[in-house]
Structures are given as structure tokens and as C-alpha cells.
Amino acid sequence: xxxxxxxxxxxxxxxxxxxxxxxxxxxxxxxxxxxxxxxxxxxxxxxxxxxxxxxxxxxxxxxxxxxxxxxxxxxxxxxxxxxxxxxxxxxxxxxxxxxxxxxxxxxxxxxxxxxxxxxxxxxxxxxxxxxxxxxxxxxxxxxxxxxxxxxxxxxxxxxxxxxxxxxxxxxxxxxxxxxxxxxxxxxxxxxxxxxxxxxxxxxxxxxxxxxxxxxxxxxxxxxxxxxxxxxxxxxxxxxxxxxxxxxxxxxxxxxxxxxxxxxxxxxxxxxxxxxxxxxxxxxxxxxxxxxxxxxxxxxxxxxxxxxxxxxxxxxxxxxxxxxxxxxxxxxxxxxxxxxxxxxxxxxxxxxxxxxxxxxxxxxxxxxxxxxxxxxxxxxxxxxxxxxxxxxxxxxxxxxxxxxxxxxxxxxxxxxxxxxxxxxxxxxxxxxxxxxxxxxxxxxxxxxxxxxxxxxxxxxxxxxxxxxxxxxxxxxxxxxxxxx
Length: 483
Ligand SMILES: *Cc1c(COP(=O)(O)O)cnc(C)c1O
Hints:
With about 475 residues, the protein is α/β, with parallel strands linked by helices. The chain has helices spanning about 1-5, 55-65, 90-95, 95-100, 110-130, 140-160, 175-180, 200-205, 230-240, 270-275, 330-365, 395-405, 435-455, 455-460, 475; strands at about 135, 165-170, 185-190, 210-215, 240-245, 265-270, 290, 305, 310-315, 385, 415, 425. It has two domains: about 90-345, Aspartate Aminotransferase, domain 2; about 350-470, Alpha-Beta Complex (Aspartate Aminotransferase, domain 1), CATH 3.90.1150.10. The chain contains 15 helices and twelve strands. The strands form three sheets. The protein has a seven-stranded mixed sheet with strand order 1-7-6-5-4-2-3, sandwiched between helices. α7 (about 175-180) links the parallel β2 and β3 (about 185-190). α3 runs antiparallel to α11 (about 330-365) and α6 (about 140-160) crosses α7. The radius of gyration is 26 Å and the shape is globular. The site of pyridoxal-5'-phosphate has 13 residues, from α6.
């Protein structure tokens, strides 16, 4: 089946294709009783399983595991996604039975420790973001956006404002327009200026009394800080709107910028990027929403309240948007975030952001001679190049980034953000050493030379991976669901 599926897949065969009749992985005494079938229909039928000995099985799964690429094997500079190293200690803390065996149906009186952890984590996140309250219910960044937008809608409804639109810049994350549309708001796209950021006049032109507010990503998807955010928020507020900030990439600004103090009314964070939970791999995640005082009544319920040193869940908030997650959110992710914040402390959270920014700027400066840098100015945690210099050799972003795999790196984010043609978006993160960043830079420089001297090797890349260049859309267009 592997062969037929795609000749390109020169990998470990499926376990069903392995084995030799009569091999077995155990030795047990011969049975001395009659066969007994729970289901008579199955009598005499064979389960078509391969005959394998133990070492075949061990090697099969060990080899499969070695085909995987992850942060524990190499650098993963996927822009916007913050694939940074997460301390193993925090996983171990989560594994402590008091956390890992906590059950959401245990009464509050017996879960005080868990509730205290959630309560305190909310407070830390408010401190870090300069906001007044937080809900840890959303399970992902995009769900946090949805919750934030639902709250903005509830706020306007309570004030009897009729709003139908939301302003979204071209450098916002792709999930933003989707989240706003789900709330029935029509996204109005506006353009960033030649420096890759928003100018107040552009916002002023489209902001009217039908507009619920603005939804911007800061730092934006070009890795740039929206310097005019304070003025923009003043314009939006003066015309009755609210300011939503997508703060998924907080690792660029934590300990440095308090978004709630520069005009933002509501923002979400991705604990599964910035705060010690791995991102990718299907979760679980956590996308807490932080708000300023006037939006507190609309936060999802239940909320945790603290009275006389006792923590309880409270549903009694009449203007709430309701519940958006079974129970109270993904607790495991919260434990890791809590441990991360407590071990780092204010000083080192700030340092982490500074290093994330330093590393990205170092890459930007080292590579801008060989790859086109559309916005040549200091960046935050990521930098965006394109394949413009390589176009004359007919080499594209895809060729460049597939070739990077031959050098042992995960490719960066490609063809995003959309405002840059053929974008190559690199986010080194704060956890990579100078040595590994230098190796990445060397690999990119080698590839830039190859584009001139040996374009064929790029066109065929990856050359050394078990799976070669794939047809990117075939699996979706012609799915092979059974054989
Ligand atoms: C990752 C990301 C999101 C979406 O987060 P998910 O947890 O994947 O839903 C939203 N905005 C920005 C800026 C992001 O980087």
C-alpha cells in the first residue's frame, strides 16, 4: 500500500506489510481448554494480523519515531508559531498526581489547590498584559478571539449600539476575520503603510458609528510593533468602538509592553506558544482572554472568585456571554504556564522577550544581503524575507525552504503573511543558542549560493529526507480512504 500510495514514500513499511508466518512475540504455555467465542459469528474467522517477533515490533516503532521532527531533535523556526523549547521540568510538575489526577467533578472544597492555581494564573496574566480580569476557558488562540469578539458584541448590545462591521488590517492573523465573521461582523480590511504598520489616518477614514471596533495583531504578522496603537485606539474609542488585540505572540513583548495600558480593551494570549506548552501537534492549548474593567461583566462563566481565602466557581454574572468550554478549560496547559511564570519571574520573562527579539534581528541582519527583506527596519520576534532575489534563477520560496530540510532544520513559515509575495517568515525564538542560529544562517547562505550555482539541487529538495517533494494538494483532492 505504501508503494502504491506514492512511490515517493520510501519509508518504513506499514506493520501490516511486515512479518513472516509463524513468527511470534511471546511464549506462553499451550492452551488446554476449548476455544470459546463470545461472538459466534466470529467463529473460524481470522484476524488478518502480521506475525512478528518482539524485536521487529520494537524496531518498527522506534524507526517511525525517528522519522519525526520536533523541537527535541532540531531547530523549528516556524514564524508566528513560536515553536520554542519548553522546559521538561514543567511537564514533570504537571505529572504530579495532585494535578494530573485532579478531576473536574471533584467538589470545590476538595479542589482548592487547583482553583488557586487557576485564580493566580489569571492574575499573573493580567499583570503581564496590564488588564483587569482574565478567563482561562478558551482552548486555543482562535477560540480566544471568538470569545473576545463575542464580548465586544455583548458590550455594544448592552449599550444598545447597532454595529455591523469590524476593521481588520492586512497584517492581522488569518484567524481574525474568521472569528469576527462568526459573530456576524463584516470585516473591513485596511492596508498597512510602506513600513508595514498601520497609520492612524487609515483607521480614521473607515471608522464610523456602524463599526464595532478594530481587531489588530500586535506584534503584527510582519513581526513589527504597531507603534501607532495608542493614537489608533483613541480614534476608535472616540467613535464608540472597542480595540481587540491578538496577543498570540506575546513572547516578543512580555515584561516590556503592557498592551492593556496602550489602548487595548481585550486581548487573547496563546499559552501554547509563549508559556511553556508546545504548539502544534493538535493540542491541547489554551487561549486566555484578558479584558479591561468595562468588559468584565461579559466574561465567560463560571469565573473563580476568592472570598475569605476560599476559592469558588461563580455563575452569577447576568451579562456573561456564557460558557464556552466544558468545565474550566485545559487545566494541564495552565499548570505548565503557572510553573513557567513562577520559575522565570518578572525579570526573566522580560529577558526571554528581549532574547527573542535580539535573535530575530540578528538573523535579519545576517541574511538581508542574500534574501530580499521587504521591510528593512528593526523587527520584534520574527523577520520576513522573500524569494525576490532568487526569482532570476527560477528558484522559489518553496525550493529554498524544502532545501533547508536537507540541512536538518524544519522549514520556516512560507507564503504568509500574504502582504509579502513569496514570504519566508523566520522566528528563531529565545530558546535557541547563538551556535544553532549561526548554523541556520549558514544553511540559508549556502542555499542562496546554490540558487545561483546548482539550482537543480533546490528544485529536487528535500534530497536526504525519507519523504521527498510531495504533491502538496493530491492527498486533499484525491484522498485514498481505503484499499
Ligand atoms: C497562532 C496564532 C493564532 C491562532 O492560535 P491557535 O491556538 O492556533 O488557534 C492567532 N493569532 C496569531 C497572531 C497567532 O500567531
